[in-house]
Design a protein that fits this description.
It is built from 15 helices and 21 strands. It is of the alpha/beta class. It has an eight-stranded mixed beta sheet with strand order 6-14-15-3-16-17-21-20, sandwiched between helices. The chain is elongated and about 115 Å long.
């Protein structure tokens, strides 16, 4: 397999939730489906950080949990290139794995949760929290692909008289190099050693057998022919090995081994998140899903955790999917960025490309909202109209068209983009408004509300224009007549006719054509009709 092949890949990943409130409603098919993740294609390469950004409720967390099968996807596939030893890999489809196989793969695929308090069991000590995954997966355990051997050095002893047997699991305490764990052992004459011996030392007559490798036990005895037989094994119990691993992890994440016997409530938010990171690292994973790991922390602590994650990635060769709604945080840590809206990716590209020159209108709006520390900065924020549509019934075509400030105009009219956007906003709100009062709320000084239909026709139309930022006369005469006709239907309390009229009069390709991902350079994809050839000039083919 090519090294450029993604280590984690998703194709057509979907997760729908049924809104049925009971068995009978579900049986009769009266429930609806929340389309939290709807057809996502994703690639994560070894050693990189893929940032997933978007507004709250767009499906980021559901995507992260579905990728690792913490929740079962509705459809699609997730492929992981798992380690098989000796540097080889094989691709497995997580959607085809049994529960036992998935459990085994948890050592390679881990998750860091958003809330560093609720994700830690308050009844367990830090030692138990970090040690639990080690116990569940039977770790530490030796690597079948690592060879253990001894490097024997003799002083005043014939080398041919020495034989050494090395236990296979010594790679637990000796770091392998090139899949070989080498344990140095010295055999020398020294009649001066007496008393209690350390685990790495043994004596036979006037001979001393010693290794300086920590955690290795040595046993030596004479053979019948006068030679020396040496056995080398792990000098620590499984419990001791796990305890050493826990202490090591605490130091790796910037905590003290003395913290191991405290409870989560005794730590600050940043320290608790460090504990969560240590727990994820305990099983030596390759891929880690970071689900907004700093959003619940103070700004001063966020930078510390981000730097820690970056250092750990470099030290252990980790691959991250970093989920966040703060684009400033993602810019700091991500190599590539995927912008998510209503369960779909709107734009995917390198961090440099996306931040320097955002292409999708939604990406532009998100980046324009990032605050700048320069008091003289005079950037223009893009304010999106309307509310985020419900994932139960997402809009047809491009899901962002109900709020897009650059929606493709109809070829029938010659209008400025601002007026066209206002007309579409009027149409969309009209479709969701049951009464004129829901379309236009008029409040008097005393707090009472006036029924809009009680106004004269001209006053009502003026109020509608003001509500939707439309000029007194729309630039295109045909559009002006169509709008005036729609307002008349609304004033006459004929909502059905008004909705039908606006749907016919004000239509955009974005409402009926679902955009396909378009390449905008190396590894840069945009799902927007503005970048498809047939819609670039704003007209239909």
């Amino acid at each position: 397999m090519s090294d450029n092949e993604p280590i984690l890949r998703a194709e057509g990943l979907r997760k729908y939730y049924d809104t049925s409130s009971g068995f009978l409603e579900s049986l009769l098919g009266h429930g609806k489906q929340v389309k939290a993740v709807d057809g996502v294609d994703l690639e994560l390469r070894a050693g990189e950080t893929l940032g997933v950004v978007g507004e709250s409720g767009c499906g980021k967390t559901t995507l992260g949990r579905t990728l690792l099968w913490l929740i079962e996807p509705t459809d699609g596939s997730v492929y992981y290139r798992r380690r098989t030893g000796g540097g080889d890999r094989e691709t497995v489809d997580l959607t085809e794995c049994s529960s036992t196989e998935l459990r085994d793969l948890r050592t390679d695929l881990q998750y860091i949760f958003q809330d560093p308090f609720s994700s830690l069991n308050p009844r367990l000590t830090v030692n138990d929290i970090i040690g639990e995954p080690l116990e569940v997966h039977g770790l530490p355990c030796s690597d079948d692909h690592v060879t253990t051997r001894a490097d024997v050095r003799t002083v005043d002893v014939p080398a041919e008289d020495v034989s050494v047997t090395v236990a296979d699991d010594l790679d637990l305490v000796v770091e392998p190099v090139g899949d070989v764990a080498t344990i140095p052992v010295d055999v020398r004459r020294d009649a001066g050693i007496d008393g209690d011996l350390e685990p790495g030392i043994d004596t036979v007559d006037d001979l001393v057998v010693e290794t300086l490798a920590e955690g290795v036990a040595v046993t030596a005895e004479r053979t019948d022919d006068g030679g020396i037989e040496i056995e080398m094994s792990v000098g620590l119990s499984t419990a001791e090995l796990r305890q050493e691993r826990i202490y090591e992890l605490l130091e790796v994440v910037g905590l003290n081994p003395s913290h191991a016997h405290r409870y989560p409530h005794e730590f600050s938010g940043g320290q608790r998140q460090r504990i969560g990171i240590a727990r994820a690292l305990a099983v030596d994973p390759e891929v880690v899903i970071c689900d907004e790991p700093v959003s619940a922390l103070d700004v001063s602590v966020q930078a510390q955790i981000l730097n820690l994650l970056a250092d750990l990635q470099e030290e252990f060769g980790l691959s991250y999917v970093f989920i966040a709604h703060d684009l400033g945080v993602v810019e700091h840590i991500a190599d590539r960025v995927a912008v998510m809206y209503l369960g779909e990716f709107a734009e995917v590209g390198s961090t440099e490309d996306v931040y320097a020159s955002p292409s999708h209108p939604y990406t532009e709006a998100l980046l324009s909202a990032i605050p700048e520390p320069d008091p003289l900065w005079d950037g223009e924020k893009i304010l999106l109209s309307g509310d985020v549509p419900s994932p139960i019934d997402p809009p047809a075509g491009c899901r962002f068209h109900t709020r897009c400030p650059r929606v493709v105009p109809s070829e029938e009219y010659d209008l400025p983009q601002t007026e066209w956007r206002s007309l579409l906003t009027f149409k969309h709100r009209l479709e969701g408004a049951e009464t004129p009062g829901a379309l236009l709320a008029l409040e008097n000084r005393g707090g009472t509300r006036t029924d809009p239909t009680d106004l004269h026709r001209e006053e009502f139309e003026s109020a509608i224009r003001s509500e939707f930022d439309l000029p007194e006369t729309i630039a295109d005469r045909r559009a002006e007549r169509a709008f005036a006709r729609a307002v008349e239907h609304v004033h006459d309390d004929d909502r059905k006719a008004a909705v039908a009229h606006t749907r016919d009069a004000f239509g955009s390709p974005c409402e009926r054509v679902e955009p396909e991902p378009v390449s905008a350079g190396d590894d840069h994809r945009i799902s927007c009709l503005l970048f498809e050839d047939e819609w670039r000039d704003g007209s239909a083919p």
